[in-house]
Write a sequence for this structure.
């Protein structure tokens, strides 16, 4: 930084700086003001959008409670088309899955869950969708496919869901009559803090079955 001996030199230096940089400074200030106003507008827009999506989702839940499949499908389509960037779009798809299962359309439910596993906006929703998809696979006797889904889970991002995955892994192994592996999976679920009241019963049932098999 230059050091000036007199006030006149300082004033002259300021004048020279302003002549060289004044226009760009004004432009920068204007851009800054526009940027602030633009950011405020963007925030307001996002809040309005979220409120609209929330209202639609409440309407969807009411339709779901009444088993109004046609209404659920239409509202879900609106949410996934117009509010795809919000979590409500994914929640709506999960609600539609529930209705599809109730209607017995398991193929459609499976397809929707597969879409969420691949493209949901958050890892949490992806895990929820994957867990529900595995349960659907168990119900339709596609147990090997269920095990493959669990094997594909990224352990680094599944904290909080590991107990559920291990319990479902145990269910899949039981369905495949692989009781030793099922017992190990259930024990892992217990260590992970699984809260299912049926889990201990499942584990005891496997032990009883193994004792009977050994005795025979």
């Amino acid at each position: 930084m230059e050091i000036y001996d007199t006030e006149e030199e300082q004033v002259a230096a300021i004048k020279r700086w302003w002549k060289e940089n004044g226009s760009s400074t004004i432009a920068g200030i204007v851009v800054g003001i526009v940027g602030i106003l633009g950011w405020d507008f963007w925030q307001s827009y996002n809040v309005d959008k979220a409120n609209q999506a929330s209202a639609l989702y409440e309407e969807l839940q009411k339709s779901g409670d009444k088993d109004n499949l046609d209404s659920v499908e239409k509202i879900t389509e609106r949410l996934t088309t117009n509010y795809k960037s919000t979590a409500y779009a994914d929640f709506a798809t999960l609600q539609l899955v529930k209705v599809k299962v109730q209607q017995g359309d398991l193929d459609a439910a499976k397809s929707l869950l597969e879409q969420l596993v691949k493209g949901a906006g958050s890892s949490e929703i992806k895990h929820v969708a994957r867990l529900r998809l595995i349960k659907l696979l168990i119900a339709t006797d596609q147990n090997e496919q269920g095990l493959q889904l669990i094997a594909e889970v990224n352990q680094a991002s599944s904290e909080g869901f590991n107990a559920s995955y291990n319990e479902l892994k145990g269910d899949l192994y039981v369905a495949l009559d692989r009781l030793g592996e099922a017992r190990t999976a259930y024990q892992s679920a217990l260590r992970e803090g699984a809260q299912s009241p049926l889990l201990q019963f499942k584990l005891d049932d496997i032990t009883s079955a193994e004792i009977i098999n050994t005795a025979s």
Remarks:
- The radius of gyration is 29 Å.
- Confidence is low (pLDDT under 50) at residues 1-5.
- The chain has nine helices and no strands.
